[in-house]
Amino acid sequence: MTVGEYKPGLEGIPAAQSSISYVDGQKGILEYRGIRIEELAQQSTFLETAYLLIWGILPTREELKQFEDDIRYHRRIKYRIRDMMKCFPETGHPMDALQASAAALGLFYSRRALANPNYIREAVVRLLAKIPTMVAAFQLMRKGNDPVRPRDDLDYAANFLYMLHEREPDPLAAHIFDVCLTLHAEHTINASTFSARVTASTLTDPYAVVASAVGTLAGPLHGGANEEVITMLEEIGSVENVRPWLDTSLERKTKIMGFGHRVYKVKDPRATCLQGLAEQLFEKFGHDKYYDIAIELEKAVEEKLGHKGIYPNVDFYSGLVYRKMGIPEDLFTPVFAIARVAGWLAHWKEQLDENRIYRPTQIYKGEHGNPYIAIEQR
Ligand code: ACO
């Protein structure tokens, strides 16, 4: 076997063949199963998009209704999972709580019957149904409240916001939240999806697949950036301070959170959609001064770093949208995970279709033939 050239971060190295999504980073195009993201954001719903990603076709009206009904039926979590979550420290990060809870689902439901299409469908339904309930439950329990039961009369997005805030959401906010989920549902072989595929390739259960992907998404260079964007905007504090702050950050070689992408060298199309959604929210619920700071920062970063292809990514405007909906900052990444479960499951299923366990090689840079030194002689 010949060993190929080493590329840190596997940049440019294909790690899978996939028909799930497509990105053209030069033109700023993202498609799910060949359909442009802008079209899905305008016309689809998150659950319809999840169906499209996982099964590769748009569902008929009956198929969609059945899928939505199945998910609605499975939204509740077992008391034993809720009790386990109650033992989590309230100071813990909700992504860690989500990773542990997703893995715990495997204790109850894992049968590893991967060749059985019903098993795959049941796991898809359970994960899509229960992950939002677990995110909302941890949020309420860490505040000392009991989690609220999911409401069967509310759709997917509205029910999550209801469970989180213990009141029915405004219909515009619920609609915008659903669009946010669609925008975050899938994005080719990014770090967490790669993690999901590697885990899937060992033929472990889908709960372990999602738990490993959640752990990967949590990092600040990946999904965790949306949380840091708000901290950054608060630190900047005013439109006047944008340029001095940026100059200092660039002098210190600090990465500007919410900017840059391994694939996009123009503005991420999801950032453009999210910016539009933020504007709709501000129009209805009042302006946010951090939006003005964000707009000025986008202009200033483009002037300074546009030549390197550094533009806003999906995380830049999502935090402003979620904040306006009253979602706490450390839940931004769990909310990202609620959406991305759809993409991870699509990759899980695709990986199983033509599985070969991931086992790349390495370039050994250590020593050979060293003697073992007895402990008393070290
Ligand atoms: N701010 C300032 N400079 C940047 C930024 C940034 N956000 N991103 C990249 N650059 C610069 C680098 O300093 C480097 O410059 P150099 O060639 O002069 O050394 C050049 O652009 C290439 O950057 P890399 O870090 O090598 O690019 P890479 O593809 O490895 O990283 C990443 C992509 C991790 C997203 C990076 O842009 C980053 O750290 N951004 C900030 C964190 C962020 O927003 N993450 C969310 C990404 S979207 C998602 O995961 C959902």
TrEMBL record:
<dbReference type="InterPro" id="IPR016143">
    <property type="entry name" value="Citrate_synth-like_sm_a-sub"/>
</dbReference>
<feature type="active site">
    <location>
        <position position="261"/>
    </location>
</feature>
<dbReference type="InterPro" id="IPR019810">
    <property type="entry name" value="Citrate_synthase_AS"/>
</dbReference>
<dbReference type="InterPro" id="IPR002020">
    <property type="entry name" value="Citrate_synthase"/>
</dbReference>
<dbReference type="InterPro" id="IPR011278">
    <property type="entry name" value="2-MeCitrate/Citrate_synth_II"/>
</dbReference>
<dbReference type="InterPro" id="IPR016142">
    <property type="entry name" value="Citrate_synth-like_lrg_a-sub"/>
</dbReference>
<feature type="active site">
    <location>
        <position position="315"/>
    </location>
</feature>
<dbReference type="GO" id="GO:0005975">
    <property type="term" value="P:carbohydrate metabolic process"/>
</dbReference>
<keyword id="KW-0012">Acyltransferase</keyword>
<dbReference type="InterPro" id="IPR036969">
    <property type="entry name" value="Citrate_synthase_sf"/>
</dbReference>
<keyword id="KW-0816">Tricarboxylic acid cycle</keyword>
<dbReference type="GO" id="GO:0005829">
    <property type="term" value="C:cytosol"/>
</dbReference>
<dbReference type="InterPro" id="IPR024176">
    <property type="entry name" value="Citrate_synthase_bac-typ"/>
</dbReference>
<protein>
    <recommendedName>
        <fullName>Citrate synthase</fullName>
    </recommendedName>
</protein>
<keyword id="KW-0808">Transferase</keyword>
<dbReference type="GO" id="GO:0006099">
    <property type="term" value="P:tricarboxylic acid cycle"/>
</dbReference>
<dbReference type="Pfam" id="PF00285">
    <property type="entry name" value="Citrate_synt"/>
</dbReference>
<dbReference type="GO" id="GO:0036440">
    <property type="term" value="F:citrate synthase activity"/>
</dbReference>
<comment type="pathway">
    <text>Carbohydrate metabolism; tricarboxylic acid cycle.</text>
</comment>
<comment type="similarity">
    <text>Belongs to the citrate synthase family.</text>
</comment>
